[in-house]
């Protein structure tokens, strides 16, 4: 397989967001630290961020399993935040401050290569998000970080959380493309494998510090992806932009 | 009521698209003329555009009434196109040409004030579409015309066609705002009245040539809207941008 063959026919480059586009751990732990300082409380803000994020998959699993109806990620984040605050003995914050902390997910900073890589890619392809983040969250992040998406797709549009097949298929359908005309870019092997299983093309970009300096997962491509790129600028070059 | 009071609290400026943002009649009739020329057929291309558009409301009414499940506007446009082609005795075109003509709705040109008005508005507000057009259509139009939307909302996101209340309420919910924090901008009184009824703020911008030189409807504001503007630049100024 040559690269030219493998990328033939791609029209849309769609991105996982948390971890792939943005460095959620640094941004969240900074906001947690500010929050704790306001209440004069000591907290390991990175441990807090990790715990909050660890509740993410189980919360979505309640939707995926059919136990609860689809709800936007903001709502799951809030329930997980309430639990994390309790576990870290940080209760009694004002509702306004907790609402604001929950919105930290709307203000995540991108990895350094992201904005220029997306600008290059946009010249040759339609670019969009295929994230479990809800429309409001992704839109606000785009304004915050200057991310030039053509379309916000993913869970809220498809009414299904990744890695359910409908999350990918509903996103492709919403922009009128076949799965084979879409390439998913992600730093996570399980996401790419699920996209590949429904006919998407795939690109792996390692983000070895997503989980901090001791990260042990997703350091390498573990599947036969169409592209493995160093960062988004390399990805744009490999896609001919 | 002073203007300052009436616009207090607005966070998102949301736009009707067909007629308000883009001049669908000129764009569609030009594409119909090219299509007919390719087949060496004589056709009144403006009459064709008007007829195609006239089938728009009845088609959506089948969804609004519950007779059929929600389908994206592209599909309704295609069914209406097939009927219009038959009525104008233009059958026997290739499937590829008919598919391409149906996509003329993705390539509509904006009114002259639109791009600069939206750029101004984006500095002060979140801007988005609240159209019956589907996500793919609005996204492609944005790339074609350089429309800097923060978010594509409306029918496909809310799973309801305007003027059903859910089209407005579902769009506001998707970006996390109360209806009173959203202002709908439209050239159509019925759209604005429906938005007002569910708590939106409203702005009327007349587009007196939307339906050609003999237009008789929607020439004037027929409700107590928060803003009546000459065009999008005037709208931006009235909204303090």
In short:
Chain A has 12 helices and 6 strands. Chain A is α/β, with parallel strands linked by helices. Chain A folds into 2 domains: 152 residues, Rossmann fold (3-Layer(aba) Sandwich); 83 residues, DNA polymerase, domain 1 (Orthogonal Bundle), CATH 1.10.150.240.
Give me the oligomer status. homodimer
Mean pLDDT of chain A equals 94
Number of helices of chain A: 12
Q: How many individual domains of chain A?
A: 2
- Uncertain regions of chain A: pLDDT < 50 for 5+ in a row? 1-5
Instruction: Look at the helices and sheets of chain A and give the structural class.
Output: alpha/beta
Give the spatial strand order of the biggest sheet of chain A.
Answer: 3-2-1-4-5-6
CATH architecture of the largest domain in chain A: 3-Layer(aba) Sandwich
The tally of beta strands of chain A, per DSSP, is 6
General form of chain A: globular
**In percent, how much strand structure appears in the residues of chain A?**
5-15%
What is the rounded Rg of chain A? 18 Å
CATH topology grouping of the largest domain in chain A:
Rossmann fold
CATH class of the largest domain in chain A: Alpha Beta
Biggest sheet layout of chain A:
6 strands, parallel
Written as H for each helix and E for each strand, in order along the chain, the element string of chain A is HEHHHHHHEHEHHEHEEH
Q: What is the percent of helical residues of chain A? A: 40-55%
CATH superfamily label of the largest domain in chain A: HAD superfamily/HAD-like
Distance between the termini of chain A: 20 Å
Q: Using CB atoms under 8 Å apart, which protein chain pair has the greatest interface?
A: A-B, 19 and 19 residues
């Amino acid at each position: 397989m040559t690269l030219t063959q493998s990328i033939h026919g791609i029209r849309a480059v769609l991105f996982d967001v948390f971890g792939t586009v943005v460095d959620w751990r640094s941004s969240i732990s900074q906001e947690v630290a500010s929050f704790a300082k306001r209440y004069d409380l000591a907290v390991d803000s990175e441990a807090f961020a990790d715990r909050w994020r660890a509740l993410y998959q189980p919360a979505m699993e309640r939707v995926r399993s059919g136990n609860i109806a689809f709800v936007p990620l903001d709502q799951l984040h809030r329930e997980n935040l309430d639990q994390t605050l309790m576990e870290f003995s940080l209760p009694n914050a004002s509702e306004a401050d907790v609402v604001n902390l929950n919105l930290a997910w709307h203000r995540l900073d991108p990895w350094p290569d992201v904005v220029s890589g997306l600008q290059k890619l946009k010249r040759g392809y339609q670019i969009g998000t295929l994230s479990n983040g809800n429309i409001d969250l992704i839109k606000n992040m785009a304004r915050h970080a200057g991310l030039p998406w053509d379309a916000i797709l993913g869970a809220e549009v498809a009414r299904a959380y990744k890695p359910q097949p409908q999350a990918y298929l509903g996103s492709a359908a919403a922009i009128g493309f076949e799965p084979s005309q879409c390439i998913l870019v992600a730093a996570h092997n399980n996401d790419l494998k699920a996209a590949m299983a429904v006919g998407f093309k795939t690109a792996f970009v390692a983000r070895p510090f997503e989980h901090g300096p001791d990260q042990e997962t997703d350091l390498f491509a573990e599947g036969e992806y169409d592209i493995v790129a160093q960062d988004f600028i390399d990805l744009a070059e490999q896609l001919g932009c």
